């Protein structure tokens, strides 16, 4: 029942795009992530909108670090890494229309992450890879 409620609720969640492989998005861009659409998730930032079909998602990872697999594609400010408050990152890997591997990394508040993870898992068919037990607790509410 809780899963159904999370899937029906399609509010946009304020996130920070901290990096990835998309040239049209500057690093450290604030915007909103919408995961309630049946076919794709959308990131809206300023005058840019990125829509990714769920069927193209091939990796979901959540934790306090950016995966080493995607670190070379992501430029993260040292300020993020040295901040005293805990920052959690959601990494979404997917293939683009040309079949190339892409990645988007978002900083998401721990209070907003649960419905995002539930919706992404249900719609993409991929399980979230939690980096550690603390991330698992944060992501599972």
Write the layout of secondary structure elements.
Blueprint: H1 2-8, E1 13-20, E2 29-34, E3 40-45, E4 48-53, E5 57-63, H2 68-71, H3 78-82, E6 89-95, E7 101-107, H4 113-124, E8 128-130, H5 133-139
Question: What are the defining features of this structure?
Answer:
PH-domain like; 141 residues; single chain; disordered N terminus; alpha+beta; globular
Task: Please characterize this protein's 3D structure.
The protein is built from 5 helices and 8 strands. The protein is of the alpha+beta class and 141 residues long. Strands 4-3-2-1-7-6-5-8 form an 8-stranded mixed sheet.
Q: Any idea how many domains? A: 1
By DSSP, the count of extended strands is 8
Task: Provide the CATH top-level class.
Answer: Mainly Beta
Backbone structural class = alpha+beta
Q: Total number of helical segments? A: 5
The helix/strand series, from N terminus to C terminus, equals HEEEEEHHEEHEH
CATH homologous superfamily annotation: Pleckstrin-homology domain (PH domain)/Phosphotyrosine-binding domain (PTB)
CATH 2nd-level architecture: Roll
Distance between the termini: 15 Å
Radius of gyration: 14 Å
What is the helical fraction, as a range of percent?
A: 10-25%
Strand content: 35-45%
> Which stretches of 5+ consecutive residues score pLDDT under 50?
1-10, 71-84
Can you tell me the CATH topology? PH-domain like
Largest sheet: 8 strands, mixed
């Amino acid at each position: 029942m809780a899963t159904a409620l999370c899937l029906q609720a399609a509010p946009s969640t304020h996130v920070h795009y901290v990096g990835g492989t998309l040239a049209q998005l500057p690093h450290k861009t604030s915007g909103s992530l919408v995961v309630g659409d049946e076919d794709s998730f959308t990131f809206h930032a300023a005058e840019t909108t990125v829509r990714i079909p769920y069927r193209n998602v091939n990796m979901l990872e959540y934790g306090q670090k950016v995966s080493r697999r995607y670190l070379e594609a992501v430029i993260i400010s040292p300020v993020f890494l040295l901040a005293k408050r805990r920052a959690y990152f959601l990494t979404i890997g997917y293939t683009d229309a040309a079949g190339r591997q892409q990645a988007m990394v978002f900083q998401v508040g721990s209070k907003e992450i649960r419905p995002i993870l539930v919706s992404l898992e249900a719609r993409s068919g991929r399980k979230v890879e939690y980096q550690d037990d603390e991330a698992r607790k944060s992501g599972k509410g």
